[in-house]
Known about the structure:
Order of helices and strands: HEHEHHEHEHHEEHEEHEHHHEHH
Structural class: alpha/beta
Mean pLDDT: 88
Strand content: 5-15%
Amino acid sequence: xxxxxxxxxxxxxxxCALTVAAFxxxxxxxxxEGTTAEAAHRIVAVGGAVTEIVFALGEEERLVARDTTSxxxxxxxxxxxxxxxxxxxxxxxxxVDPDLILMLEGSGPQEAVDVLKKSGVAxxxxxxxxxxxxxxxxxxxxxxALGVPEKAxxxxxxxxxxxxxxxxxxxxxxxxxxxxxxxxxxxxxILASGTDTAAHGIIELAGAxxxxxxxxxxxxxxxxxxxxxxxxxxxxxxxxxxxxxxxxEVFTHPALAxxxxxxxxxxxxxxxxxxxxxxxxxxxxxxxxxxxxxxIRS
Length: 298
């Protein structure tokens, strides 16, 4: 087994939920008598990265439902949707008669999670995190919960190598750009990502600098804070097929228009789960973001 590498959210609720919580060690699911991890065949995956890992392990035939954020690969989107990861209802989850729930840390609301944990259905808590090693921990936790640790070991090796390669690619393309991740511009207010977030993690892995690293989580920025941040590039999640519309919209903000990013109309738009999921596709996302930053520089 490879040594560890030690180191889609359209609302304010989703933004805050992307903030990393205190580390919670993954717990082993408690199966009903006579049932084992290997025998669980009616599995619900909660969390886009969790679902992608199940598919990467080749165990997707055991899935009977997924949450709204689990829209990749295409086959996952065809499964029944039991609701948004932060707004689960016990009735929705239990309606598919699961024998195992793979639940990404931060799922909620807590009242619903508490009810599900009292239901008698086995639940595996999958740790969240926004570093390379956190991705590998997710794989290990999912593999253990599914009873396929050998497959997980192989995937950890593969993803670990891929992440190292992506990091090397990003370092060779390093732009030292100051990047501002903008979640929303609703009401003319910029909601941006500080530290301890998926956005902060991917920006750093791509060889750039988070333009606002003096607070944790997501925060609405004042005009003064935006001007002080002086981002070279704005990073946003894709909300439609036309990226140019997003760019035109964000730079109508008076303060942002005065920054280097606004003056040069520098904006990068990428798919939310792809960019912020921290799952099997993250190495590709690192390369993609790094290359787009490099293209802007040149």
